[in-house]
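User: Can you help me understand a structure? I only have the sequence.
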Amino acid sequence: MNRKPKYAGLGIALGAALGAVAGVLAGNMGIWLSIGVVIGLVIGLSSRRKEPPCPECEAVHRAHQLRRGPTSQVG
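Assistant: Let's start by predicting it. Here is the structure, written out as tokens:
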């Protein structure tokens, strides 16, 4: 079974750690911890890599594009 990396979890963990440090330094743990978690989640979700398509799917899509032609427009 293929396992996909969980970048969101890593981002949340790093954000929580940095938020906790900022909260201790600033004296307001609750706000900075939540800000760190949100920032870590955004960074974790935006760092996902695009998976390459499988060769079979790529061949089907290529055949579909050739059948439609380059000048056809949808809509």
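Now, to help you interpret it: The chain has a mean pLDDT of 80. Helices lie at 7-26, 29-46, 55-68. Let me know which part you'd like to focus on.
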